Amino acid sequence: MIRAAFAVALALCALAASAQSYPTHPVKVIVPYGVGGPADLYGRFIAAKLQDALGQPFVVEDRPGGGSIVGTDAVAKSPPDGYTLLVMSNTHTVNETLVPKKPFDLMRDFAPITPLNSSELLMVIHPSVPANNLREFIALAKAKPGTLNYASSGTGTPYHMAGELFKAMAGVDIVHVPHKGSDQARTAILGGQVQMMFDAITTMAGNARAGKVKALGTTGKSRSSVTPDVPTVAEAGVPGYEATIWLGMMAPAGTPRPVLEKLNGEINKVLASPEVKETWGKQGAVPMGMSIDQFDKFLREDITKWAKVVKLSGAKQD
Asked: What is the pTM of this model?
């Protein structure tokens, strides 16, 4: 008994020492989405801050595809040593219901670290669409069912689910056109290949201000300070409508708890800084730091929430 207890104590000491020295070589941060989207931008921001704080390179690698499944699976299959991390979003909690036959299970194969931020979406249409507000767009969609298209960055992404929820609540038939990443979806709406898109306000507001798209509504409960002249979707014609995008970080299951705690602590220091709160606030993003256990609870609740939305919307895997 004494020998076993001694062995456990030695193991705990080794883990603590390992976490204290972590990281000793470069860390890979996989973003399972396209370049230029919020996960890529904020993932790179956090990686740079971790690099400064911990003294080793945190190298971001974008691996889009399959509505986040390609890059996520690569992390699931990585050694659980803290040297491969995942930037994730509510795409992952949606996919637990929408894509049941994935090569991984989120809460079995990954360990929570912390959420990063949340932001509203901006509903936009191409300038060529003959509608100047949400009610006119809904009337157009009802007059021409199945002829209008909307872009997303892939099945299960917040952009896809926002579109499906809108269709269900507005009673319109608009065709989903999934893309490999948000950058491609954004290019499609800007180029007029599709008529509508829900995009993160952090990445689309500038295009709306420049007149490259027409903004019809934001998806929060109240108007965004980034686009104060744009009504919410609920205010503009779909009462009760609400959708957001949030980002977080996870690691492969089995990653030592002291390493997770170290990452959680360093990231939460960044999220709590006045500079980040102010800068991100101007972009439309709200820092969301939590403890590991709080994030675990948040993830499980979000999986349940989106299971209900998938059922309500009738969304299917494309």
From this structure: 0.86
